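Hello,

Our lab assistant flagged a job as stuck in the queue for most of the afternoon. It eventually completed. Since we weren't sure the result was trustworthy after the delay, we are filing this so someone can double-check. Below is the sequence as submitted and the structure that was eventually returned. Let us know if re-running is recommended.
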Amino acid sequence: MMTELKHIRNFSIIAHIDHGKSTLADRLLETTRTISERQMRKQVLDDMELERERGITIKAHAIRLACRAGDNRIYQLNLIDTPGHVDFTYEVSRSLSACEGVLLVVDASQGVEAQTVSNLFLALENKLEIIPVINKIDLPAARPDEIARQIIDLTGCKKDDIILCSAKTGRGINQLLEAIISRVPPPSGSPERPLKALVFDSVYDSYRGAAVYLKIVDGSVSRGDRIKFFSHGKQYEVDEVGCRRLTNLPLERLSAGEVGYLYANIKRVADTRVGDTITSAHSPADSPLPGFVAVKPMVFSGLYPAIAEDYSQLREALEKLKLNDASLSFTPETSGALGFGFRCGFLGMLHMEIITERLAREYDQTIINTVPNVEYHVFLNSGKQIVIDSPTAMPDPGKINYIEEPYVDTLIITPPDSIGPIMRLCTERRGDYKNTEYPTRARAVLSYVHPLSEIIFDFYDRLKSISRGYASLDYGLPYYRKSNLVKLDILINNETVDALSVIIHREKAYKYGLNLTEKLRSLIPRQLFEVIIQAAIGGRIISRASVRPLRKNVTAKCYGGDITRKRKLIERQKEGKKRLKQIGMVEIPQEAFLAALKIDR
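-- returned structure --
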C-alpha cells in the first residue's frame, strides 16, 4: 500500500564526531520496533568492523521506520544516517538534500563544536527544518542549560524548541519522535511528474551489482522500468526496488517522497555517483536535480607492498575496495627505492587511514606509505599548465614560472584561554588570520585560511593537545593560490630516493631537510663504508649527515714488528672500502619511510 506524501517524513541526524549520533539512531530503531531485541546491538547501522571499533560512521545509511503518532496515524519515517567526519562533507551535503529536516545533536558536556556549526550551515543551505537536540543529559558533567544557550545563540531558536534526551538510557526519545512528525514538513514532490530521483549512496553486491540508495523526488520507479543517469547517460533496466530495514525489503514501487534502494544490474559503483539524478529512459525529466559535483581526491600517497611479490595481490585488493568506494582512485607507479606500487587518491587523511587499515585487515596486505601530498598546479615558462600529485612529476626548476597550491578556509572553535597557543600553531602552519568571534563567554571562533598541505598531517592532533582536547576544527573545499614551493630531494650516497621527496614551502625546506637527514642517520644501519645522507633543492645541498662505517681491525694479527707493516694494511683497507662504496647498495629500512611521515614541518 502506497503511503501518502503527507504521512512521510525524511530526516537526518547531524553532529560532531562522538556526540552520540549512532547511539541516537539505535534508540529510534528500538523505540519504533523497527528491529527486534535479538537484532539489537550498539551502533547497529554501522555494519563495518572499523566503524564500530573507531566509533565513527564512514558510510551513509538509510533505514525506514514506522511510527504511530498522537493522532493515531502511522507515519513513514526515513532516517538517512550520514558520516560525521570533515573528509566526507560532500556525502553529508547530498544526504541532507534528500531530507526535509534534521536533528542537530549536541553533546550535553562538550557543547557546540566546529563540525556542529559546519553541518548546521549545510542544513541551512538546503533549507531544512532544524530540531535542536541536547544528548547525553545523563552524564555527571552534563551542562544542559549552558549548552541550550549556545544552541540558541547559534540557531536563533527558542528554549522550548530544544529537546533534551539521553540516547543511552532512552530518555526523551518519544518526545523526539513526536517532534519529527509535527515539525519536519512532508516531501513536496508529485507522483504525476516525470521520474527524478537523487542518488545519495551506493554499495556493491558481488552477485547483483551496485545497490543504489536514492530518494524519489518526483514520479515513481518500479521493477522492469528503464532508467537513465544524467551524469553519464547510461541506461539500465530495474531488477528490484524496495526500502531498507537492516536488510532489504522488496516493494512493488517507490513513489515521490520515499527513500529506498534499487538494483539494475549496474556493474560498477563508479557509475552510481553520489549526487547524480536518475530519470526515466522513455520519458525523461528536462533537467537534473541541482548540486551534483564529481568528487575529486584531495590527498595523494604512494602505496607499495612491503614484499615486491605481493604487487598483484595489492592490485586485486585495491580493485575490490574501489567497487565499494568510488571516491578511491589509484594508478600504477614505480619507485627506485620501493619498486612497483600505486599512486592513490583519497578524500582526506581519515579516508587514507581507513583504506590502509582495511587493506591490512581484510586483505592481509603489509604496505608502505609514502609522504602524502596534495594536488599542485604548475605553470611553466612556456605558458603551459600541468597538474601534479607526486614530487617525482615535478618539472625541472628552470622550466617553472610559478606554482599554485590548494588553500582552505578553516574554522576553529576553542575556549578563550587557548587562543594564544592556537594562533601560534596557525602561524607556524602558514595560516592567514581572518577574524575572531565570541558567540559566548566560554567559546571563541577563529577563522583562518590555511594551505591544505599544512593541516592534513598532525595539525588536528596538535590542536587537541594544546587546547587540552577542547578545540575543534572544520574546513571547506579547496581553492588555489600562488605559493613559493620547492621540491626537496633526499640523496643517499648521491642517489635520489624518490619515495622520500616532498614538495614544501621554501621557508620550511631547511628545517625539514635537517630534521629528516638527522632522523635517517639514526635509522639507516651502518655499512662497511660511509653512508652520506643529503637533502637538496635542485642542485643545492641544504643539509648533510653521515653514517660512520663499521671498522674491521685488520692490524689485530700484527704482534710487534715495524709500524710500516700496520700502515700498509690500513692503506689497503682504505682502497678496499673505496671500491666497496662504488658498488655497495644501501638498504633503507621501512622505519625510515614511516619516520618521514612524522617529521615536523
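-- support follow-up --
The delay was a queue issue, not a problem with the job. The result is valid. Residues 9 and 77 are 5 Å apart (CA to CA). The longest helix spans residues 563-583.
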